[in-house]
Amino acid sequence: xxxxxxxxxxPNAMPxxxxxxxxxxxxxxxxxxxxxxxxxxxxxxxWQWYTPYKAWFARGQYWQASGxxxxxxxxxxxxxxxxxxxxxxxxxxxNRTEALKVDVSxxxxxxxxxxxxxxxxxxxxxxxxxTTTESLADICALINCKKAIE
Length: 150
Hints:
Layout: H1 17-24, H2 28-37, E1 44-50, E2 55-66, E3 69-81, E4 84-92, H3 96-100, H4 106-114, E5 123-130, H5 136-149
Antiparallel strand pairs: 1-2, 2-3, 3-4, 4-5
Protein backbone atom coordinates (compact mmCIF):
# COMPACT_ATOMS: atom_id res chain seq x y z
CA UNK A 1 0.00 0.00 0.00
CA UNK A 2 1.24 3.47 -0.77
CA UNK A 3 1.56 5.66 2.28
CA UNK A 4 -1.13 8.26 1.91
CA UNK A 5 -1.52 11.28 4.09
CA UNK A 6 -2.25 10.70 7.75
CA UNK A 7 -5.83 11.42 8.73
CA UNK A 8 -7.30 12.73 12.00
CA UNK A 9 -5.49 16.08 11.69
CA UNK A 10 -7.66 18.34 13.85
CA PRO A 11 -5.97 18.73 17.26
CA ASN A 12 -9.29 19.83 18.78
CA ALA A 13 -11.25 16.78 17.61
CA MET A 14 -10.30 13.60 19.45
CA PRO A 15 -11.16 10.59 17.26
CA UNK A 16 -14.66 9.18 17.64
CA UNK A 17 -16.25 6.03 16.26
CA UNK A 18 -18.14 8.13 13.73
CA UNK A 19 -14.96 9.84 12.50
CA UNK A 20 -13.11 6.54 12.23
CA UNK A 21 -15.97 4.90 10.38
CA UNK A 22 -16.02 7.77 7.87
CA UNK A 23 -12.23 7.72 7.29
CA UNK A 24 -11.72 3.94 7.33
CA UNK A 25 -14.76 2.96 5.27
CA UNK A 26 -14.75 -0.80 4.67
CA UNK A 27 -11.69 -1.20 6.95
CA UNK A 28 -13.69 -0.02 9.94
CA UNK A 29 -14.87 -3.60 10.61
CA UNK A 30 -11.24 -4.70 11.04
CA UNK A 31 -10.66 -1.73 13.37
CA UNK A 32 -13.64 -2.76 15.52
CA UNK A 33 -12.39 -6.36 15.65
CA UNK A 34 -8.97 -5.12 16.79
CA UNK A 35 -10.57 -2.86 19.41
CA UNK A 36 -12.55 -5.81 20.76
CA UNK A 37 -9.29 -7.79 21.14
CA UNK A 38 -7.43 -5.02 23.02
CA UNK A 39 -9.08 -5.53 26.45
CA UNK A 40 -8.44 -9.27 26.22
CA UNK A 41 -4.74 -8.46 25.85
CA UNK A 42 -4.83 -6.48 29.10
CA UNK A 43 -4.18 -3.25 27.18
CA UNK A 44 -5.70 0.18 27.42
CA UNK A 45 -5.73 2.15 24.17
CA UNK A 46 -5.22 5.91 24.55
CA TRP A 47 -5.61 8.47 21.77
CA GLN A 48 -3.14 11.33 21.87
CA TRP A 49 -2.21 14.23 19.65
CA TYR A 50 1.25 13.59 18.26
CA THR A 51 2.80 16.97 17.47
CA PRO A 52 5.66 15.89 15.15
CA TYR A 53 3.13 14.43 12.70
CA LYS A 54 0.27 16.80 13.52
CA ALA A 55 -2.17 13.90 13.78
CA TRP A 56 -3.91 11.70 16.36
CA PHE A 57 -2.25 8.38 17.17
CA ALA A 58 -3.45 5.66 19.53
CA ARG A 59 -1.06 4.02 21.97
CA GLY A 60 -1.65 0.55 23.35
CA GLN A 61 -0.61 0.80 27.01
CA TYR A 62 0.12 -2.09 29.34
CA TRP A 63 0.76 -1.90 33.08
CA GLN A 64 3.77 -4.07 33.84
CA ALA A 65 4.26 -4.94 37.50
CA SER A 66 7.83 -5.34 38.64
CA GLY A 67 8.74 -5.72 42.30
CA UNK A 68 6.93 -3.17 44.48
CA UNK A 69 6.65 -0.79 41.56
CA UNK A 70 5.35 -1.12 38.08
CA UNK A 71 5.52 0.84 34.90
CA UNK A 72 3.37 1.58 31.93
CA UNK A 73 4.69 0.21 28.68
CA UNK A 74 3.64 1.14 25.15
CA UNK A 75 3.01 -2.03 23.14
CA UNK A 76 1.85 -0.52 19.84
CA UNK A 77 1.06 2.66 17.97
CA UNK A 78 -1.99 2.92 15.72
CA UNK A 79 -2.37 5.57 13.02
CA UNK A 80 -5.10 6.14 10.48
CA UNK A 81 -5.06 6.75 6.72
CA UNK A 82 -7.90 7.07 4.23
CA UNK A 83 -9.33 3.54 3.89
CA UNK A 84 -6.95 1.71 6.24
CA UNK A 85 -5.07 1.90 9.51
CA UNK A 86 -1.60 0.85 10.62
CA UNK A 87 -0.48 -0.84 13.79
CA UNK A 88 3.23 -0.63 14.58
CA UNK A 89 4.70 -2.93 17.23
CA UNK A 90 8.19 -1.75 18.18
CA UNK A 91 10.89 -4.11 19.47
CA UNK A 92 14.43 -3.60 20.68
CA UNK A 93 16.91 -4.96 18.18
CA UNK A 94 18.21 -7.40 20.79
CA ASN A 95 14.71 -8.99 20.81
CA ARG A 96 14.42 -9.63 17.07
CA THR A 97 15.22 -13.32 17.55
CA GLU A 98 12.46 -13.63 20.15
CA ALA A 99 9.98 -11.90 17.82
CA LEU A 100 10.90 -14.35 15.06
CA LYS A 101 10.08 -17.29 17.36
CA VAL A 102 6.44 -16.20 17.68
CA ASP A 103 3.89 -18.42 15.95
CA VAL A 104 2.87 -16.05 13.13
CA SER A 105 2.46 -16.27 9.36
CA UNK A 106 5.40 -16.40 6.94
CA UNK A 107 4.40 -12.93 5.74
CA UNK A 108 4.70 -11.52 9.28
CA UNK A 109 8.02 -13.29 9.85
CA UNK A 110 9.26 -11.57 6.69
CA UNK A 111 8.05 -8.20 8.03
CA UNK A 112 10.10 -8.85 11.19
CA UNK A 113 13.19 -9.83 9.19
CA UNK A 114 12.89 -6.83 6.84
CA UNK A 115 12.20 -4.19 9.50
CA UNK A 116 14.97 -1.59 9.60
CA UNK A 117 16.68 -0.75 12.88
CA UNK A 118 16.37 2.89 13.96
CA UNK A 119 17.48 5.23 16.68
CA UNK A 120 20.20 5.56 19.29
CA UNK A 121 18.72 2.71 21.33
CA UNK A 122 18.31 0.31 18.41
CA UNK A 123 14.66 -0.53 17.83
CA UNK A 124 12.63 -1.68 14.86
CA UNK A 125 8.94 -1.46 14.00
CA UNK A 126 6.83 -4.29 12.66
CA UNK A 127 4.19 -2.32 10.76
CA UNK A 128 0.90 -3.79 9.60
CA UNK A 129 -1.28 -1.95 7.08
CA UNK A 130 -4.77 -3.18 7.87
CA THR A 131 -7.87 -3.32 5.70
CA THR A 132 -9.19 -6.73 6.81
CA THR A 133 -8.97 -8.94 9.90
CA GLU A 134 -6.41 -11.22 8.21
CA SER A 135 -3.34 -10.10 10.18
CA LEU A 136 -4.99 -9.36 13.54
CA ALA A 137 -4.04 -12.72 15.11
CA ASP A 138 -0.39 -12.07 14.21
CA ILE A 139 -0.54 -8.57 15.68
CA CYS A 140 -1.99 -9.91 18.93
CA ALA A 141 0.70 -12.63 19.07
CA LEU A 142 3.47 -10.03 18.65
CA ILE A 143 1.90 -7.79 21.28
CA ASN A 144 1.87 -10.72 23.72
CA CYS A 145 5.50 -11.44 22.84
CA LYS A 146 6.46 -7.84 23.53
CA LYS A 147 4.65 -7.94 26.88
CA ALA A 148 6.69 -10.99 27.87
CA ILE A 149 10.19 -10.01 26.73
CA GLU A 150 10.67 -6.32 27.37
